[in-house]
Structures are given as structure tokens and as C-alpha cells.
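does this look right to u?? NAP version
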Amino acid sequence: MWTATETVDPKPICLIVAACKHMGIGKGGDLPWHLPNEFNYFIDKITSITTAGKKNLLVSGRKSYEPFPKSCMPLPNCYIAVLSRTLNSVPKHAHYLCRDLPSAIKLASTPPLSKEIETIWIIGGVETYIEAMKHPWCELLYLTEIMAEFDCDTFFPEFDRKVYKLVDEFPGVPTGIQEEEGIKYKFHVFKRDATLKN
Ligand SMILES: NC(=O)c1ccc[n+]([C@@H]2O[C@H](COP(=O)([O-])OP(=O)(O)OC[C@H]3O[C@@H](n4cnc5c(N)ncnc54)[C@H](OP(=O)(O)O)[C@@H]3O)[C@@H](O)[C@H]2O)c1
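got this back:
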């Protein structure tokens, strides 16, 4: 039960996603492409902290977490919260099981975890992205534009580009067209216009 006396320490919420033409993000429960350098960029962003000793809380829907390569675990500087209404135990290598996104955000922003958490990273899937973008603490959307068409069954939602505005250059984000495996892609960052309501 939420009480008025509870200490809330708001945390920045960031989304990260890679999407191909028509905003496809997934196929058959996995990524439609194999782009190791793009994946390393994703890992680099979600594990980066600016203050030593801090950690990020990664929030993932159950289906996005299932194919996550376990060879990357444990991820440095991270706790992982998996969202599920059906699971009864915390999945392997994750730290928390949450029944909904507000519970995960509350976990990160109230004691005891709030002392440790720097950023809440939303790593998918669709329902979590949609809900997180409406949250007032949501600041940044890291979107890799995969400049190719892949057969997809999961799509990143439409979002209001007057609210989330494309940033020309962003620290730590390479500019220009990248290429690997014969596929071109670009890293983008959209920043929420704090003066607008979503
Ligand atoms: N390209 C990218 O950057 C990227 C990023 C992420 C994912 N993906 C891809 O997208 C696909 C998976 O995404 P998806 O949207 O289908 O599934 P998802 O959101 O990852 O997982 C759906 C499941 O997560 C749980 N869940 C999600 N939102 C919840 C909420 N708000 N509260 C409680 N539980 C919640 C539910 O689990 P229960 O059924 O257990 O209740 C739901 O059935 C995969 O193909 C994946 O590879 C791509």
C-alpha cells in the first residue's frame, strides 16, 4: 500500500530498441537479425553508470527476457526485473519478478533499492515500451534504425515525435551510418520535451 510518507526518489527512465523498416523488432520470439556490434552497443548502454557503485534496473517483459543470451550474464552494474503475470519465480539470472511496470518503477525508486539505482532501462517488449513512454520520468528513447526490411511479427509502437524529439548528437552515441553483416543502421536518440505533456 502506497503511503504519503513513503520516500520516492525519482529515477530517469530510458528505453532502448532496434527497429527495422516498418518498425519491426522481433520474429518468432527472437531478434530478426544478427548484428553483434549493434548488440554490443545495447549492452554498453544498459550497463553504463556515471557513479561508481551504482546500478541500473533493467525492466523486461517475460518474452523479451527468454531469448536474452545468458552468456552475457551476469551483466555488470545491473539488476534485472522481469515482468510477468504468470511466472511464480524469478527467472534465472534475473533478480526480481514484478507483476506490472509500476511495481518495477516503485522498486527502483523507493528504499532500499533507490539508494543504489541510477537509471531504469526498459528493454522491451511492446506493452512495456508503450506504458513506459507515458510515464513522466521517461526521458530518452535510444532507437537503432536498422535500414533494411526483415520479416517481423512484433513492432515498436507509434510514438509522438513532438513529445520525443530527435537529438542531433548525443554523448556516447556514434554518428553516421554503421554497417555489419551487409546491413546498414544508424543510432538515434529521442529526448522527451519536458515542457510538453505526453
Ligand atoms: N529489437 C529490439 O530491440 C527488441 C527489444 C525487445 C524485444 N524484442 C523482441 O520482441 C519480442 C518480444 O516482445 P513482446 O512484446 O512480444 O513480449 P514481451 O513484452 O517481452 O513479453 C510479453 C510478456 O511479458 C509479460 N508482460 C509484458 N508487459 C507486462 C506488464 N506491463 N505487466 C506484467 N507483465 C507483463 C507478460 O508475461 P506473462 O505472459 O508471463 O504474464 C507478457 O505475456 C521478441 O521477438 C523479442 O526478440 C526486440
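Residues 17-18, 25-26, 29-31, 61-64, 67, 83-87, 99-101, 123-128, 131, 154 surround NAP (CB under 6 Å). idk if thats expected tbh
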